Fold this sequence. Notes:
Number of helices: 3
Distance between the termini: 65 Å
Amino acid sequence: MATEDRGFASMDPEEQREIARKGGQSSGGNFKNDPERASEAGKAAHEKGTAHEFTSEEAREAGKKGGERSRGGMGSDMDMSDEDDM
C-alpha cells in the first residue's frame, strides 16, 4: 500500500465531510465537563501503572502555566503591587 493510499487526506471528499461533521463525537471526548469521569480514568491509569508521574520540575512548570492562565493570560510578569488599589 502506497503512502498516498491511506489516511484522511486520501479519502473521498464526501467521506471526509461525514467524519468532520461528527466533530469528535465518537471519541471519548475530554473531561472538561465531567470531573468524576476524569477522576475514574486517572485512578484506572494508576492501577494499571500507565499514569504519568510528574517530576517536581514538571509539576512546577504546570503550576506556573496554570497560574498564568488564571490571570487572563497576563503571565507571571504582571505587576501585582497595585492590587490593593482595586
